[in-house]
Write a structure and sequence with these properties.
Blueprint lengths: L12 H28 L6 H9 L5 E2 H8 L3 H13 L3 E6 L2 E9 L1 H8 L2 H12 L4 H21 L7
Antiparallel strand pairs: 1-3, 2-3
Helix pairs in contact: 2-4, 3-4
Protein name: MarR family winged helix-turn-helix transcriptional regulator
InterPro entries: HTH_MarR-typ (IPR000835), MarR/SlyA-like (IPR039422), WH-like_DNA-bd_sf (IPR036388), WH_DNA-bd_sf (IPR036390)
Length: about 160
């Protein structure tokens, strides 16, 4: 019998805590996704549609830019973007910086649908945030931003091929 042993990276207290954070983040994401589905249904959206439309409420972006911003695959964003265009909630417009990568932006109907979520979103976030200290929320946001920076710095460079 072949005795192949692989060296295991030693555990650290920080690594164990980060593992717990990751597991809680999965649970938190699931809860937020469920809440988003409830909020979006009355305005004819889904949580995924809201996520993609939300990425372009400030400025139009190419699909690849939305995917990068949201840490989603370009293909999944493309599928949702095409569906939103088909439903009349968004449109593709020429991109002066790139001939083939059109910009994606909401239509008036898309703006209206997302705007219709504002009241439900504020009610939800106010209800949940009232149960957590404001300073704790601010600290959580800072830590999440630092973890995102660390993740980004840990990624291998993109290949040009």
């Amino acid at each position: 019998m072949n005795d192949v042993r692989t060296e295991v990276e030693p555990r650290t207290a920080a690594g164990d805590v980060l593992t717990d954070i990751i597991m809680r983040t999965f649970r938190l994401y699931g809860g937020f996704l469920e809440a988003a589905e409830v909020m979006t249904k009355p305005v004819g959206l889904t949580a995924a549609w809201w996520q993609v439309l939300g990425a372009v409420m400030r400025q139009p972006l190419p699909v690849a830019g939305i995917a990068r911003e949201m840490s989603l695959t370009r293909q999944s964003v493309q599928r949702i973007a095409d569906l939103l265009v088909e439903k009349g909630l968004a449109e593709y417009v020429p991109n002066p910086a790139h001939k083939r990568a059109k910009l994606f932006r909401p239509t008036a109907a898309g703006w209206e649908a997302v705007s219709g979520l504002t009241r439900a979103q504020h009610a939800f976030t106010n209800r949940i945030s009232a149960q957590v200290d404001l300073d704790d929320l601010r600290t959580t946001l800072k830590v999440m931003e630092r973890l995102i920076e660390a993740l980004d710095a840990d990624q291998p460079p993109a290949s040009d091929g």
